[in-house]
Design brief:
This protein is an alpha+beta fold. It has 2 domains: about 10-210, Up-down Bundle (f41 fragment of flagellin, N-terminal domain), CATH 1.20.1330; about 305-435, Histidine kinase-like ATPase, C-terminal domain (Heat Shock Protein 90). It is about 75% helix and about 10% strand. It has 9 helices and 5 strands. It has a 5-stranded mixed β-sheet with strand order 1-2-3-5-4. A hairpin with a 6-residue loop joins strand 4 and strand 5 (about 430-435). The two termini are about 30 Å apart.
Length: about 450
């Protein structure tokens, strides 16, 4: 598989996207907070001002109604009081009206022209009222009544109409303020939708960028994994070829030399007339025979040619006995199921996994007792190597050594799996499971 060219790291793009997103969220949050704060202040001011204006206008209207009732009573026949007697009531109403119109910031929400017209109309009314009471106090009662009927009542009606108009304008101002509040709400809502759309767009773009970067990264990882697997296969194949060559050289060359030496020494011993020399030659022949035995054993260990002769089960049984003596281990060998033919390519990898596992037990487990189990199933063969020693540390399971990596690669080459487990009694259980292949090279 061709390795894709290395791409630029997505970290910079992701950081830029994150900064822009955070900046947009912060800016929009500040904007919304300012809009909401202004909206709350506007609502609060408008509500308070309209409420005060309405109360003051109702107060003015109530006083004007009192003036109207007082003037009606003044004009009714049979009143025992002269018109001048009503001055004190008019003065009280006048004081309250002046306080309502001029006091504090009353009716500030009302249009300034209407407010000024109200003040001027009140001043005209009170001037006419003063003239009326002056006429009454000077004894001109009839003229005073005529002034009340013709001037004061008309002015009072005009004032009531003006106050009613101001109340209407105040209500209209309140409705306009409500419309402004609704417009602000709609603007904030519209901005929120725009911001939501922009945020979703930014998230979508960032997500697509991350997906693309991840795809490129996973493609590079897959290429690296394939390259590593190919390299591992080549290394394993080279190692097996080297071991096979060494085993053949030991068996054919050195073994034949030792055999020839033994034969020549035997003939020399038989021909020698000196008994002492014959004893020495027999001793040398025994040493050569021992070296020949060791060479043949080493040759089988490096590359067991007996795999083709006696099969996987017999080879493992032979190796367990040999490794037990060489490594100082007490190995219990078990076979389960009906033996099935295993091709040499699969058998050599199973054999190597057993070699590596027993070597690890001898070097790291801190125990001398090992259980080796070979199990045949319908379509697979399983090898288990179990010890109850110290076990594999957690740090080594996360960072496997070369031996474990090689065993995993061998399992992968066979389409099988390698598992490292901790038995209930402690220690380590290595389980290799590989599919069986029929004689035609297809998986059964």
């Amino acid at each position: 598989m061709r390795r894709p060219p290395p791409g630029r790291s997505p970290t910079t793009g992701l950081l830029v996207g994150l900064v822009l997103t955070l900046a947009a969220v912060t800016a929009y949050s500040l904007y919304v907070a300012r809009q909401v704060a202004g909206l709350e202040a506007l609502q609060r001011d408008l509500i308070d001002r309209n409420r005060r204006d309405s109360l003051q206008l109702l107060r003015i209207q109530n006083n004007l109604n009192q003036l109207g009732l007082a003037m009606r009573d003044m004009l009714e026949g049979g009143q025992p009081y002269p018109l001048s007697a009503w001055r004190s009531q008019f003065d009280r109403i006048r004081s309250d009206l002046d306080d309502a119109v001029e006091g504090g910031d009353a009716i500030d929400g009302v249009e300034s022209r209407g407010r000024e017209h109200l003040r001027v109309s009140l001043e005209d009314f009170w001037s006419a009222a003063d003239r009326t009471f002056n006429l009454a106090e000077s004894g001109r009662e009839a003229e005073a009544r005529a002034e009340v009927q013709l001037s004061l009542q008309a002015r009072q009606a005009s004032l009531s109409a003006a106050v009613a108009r101001l109340l209407f304008e105040n209500n209209a101002a309140e409705a306009e303020a409500a419309a402004r509040v609704q417009a602000i709400y709609r603007d904030v809502q519209r901005q929120a939708w725009w911001f939501l759309g922009a945020t979703l767009l930014a998230i979508g773009a960032t997500g697509l960028y991350v997906i693309r970067a991840n795809r490129r990264l996973f493609a590079e990882l897959a290429a690296l994994s394939d390259g590593r697997r190919e390299l591992a296969q080549q290394l394993i194949a080279t190692r097996e070829s080297t071991l096979r060559h060494l085993a053949r050289e030991l068996h054919d060359e050195l073994g034949q030399v030792l055999t020839a030496m033994g034969s020549m020494i035997g003939r020399a011993a038989r021909k020698s007339p000196d008994e002492a020399v014959r004893d020495d030659l027999h001793e040398v022949a025994a040493i050569a025979q021992g070296a020949l035995t060791n060479v043949r054993s080493l040759s089988q260990t490096l590359h067991p040619s007996i795999l083709d002769d006696i099969g996987l089960d017999g080879t493992l049984e032979w190796y367990v006995a040999t490794a037990g003596r060489q490594l100082g281990l007490d190995i219990h060998y078990e076979r389960h199921g009906n033996p099935a033919p295993v091709d040499s390519g699969t058998a050599i990898h199973v054999y190597r996994v057993l070699q590596e596992s027993l070597s690890n037990v001898a070097r790291h487990a801190g125990t001398h007792e090992v259980w080796v189990r070979l199990t045949y199933r319908a379509a697979e063969v399983m090898l288990e190597v179990e010890d109850h020693g110290s076990g594999i540390p957690e740090s080594r399971t996360s960072r496997s050594g070369l031996g474990i990596v090689a065993m995993r690669e061998r399992a992968g080459l066979l389409g099988g799996r390698l598992e490292l487990q901790r038995p209930d009694g402690g220690g380590t259980l290595v389980r290799l499971t590989v599919p069986l292949i029929d004689t035609e090279g297809e998986q059964s």
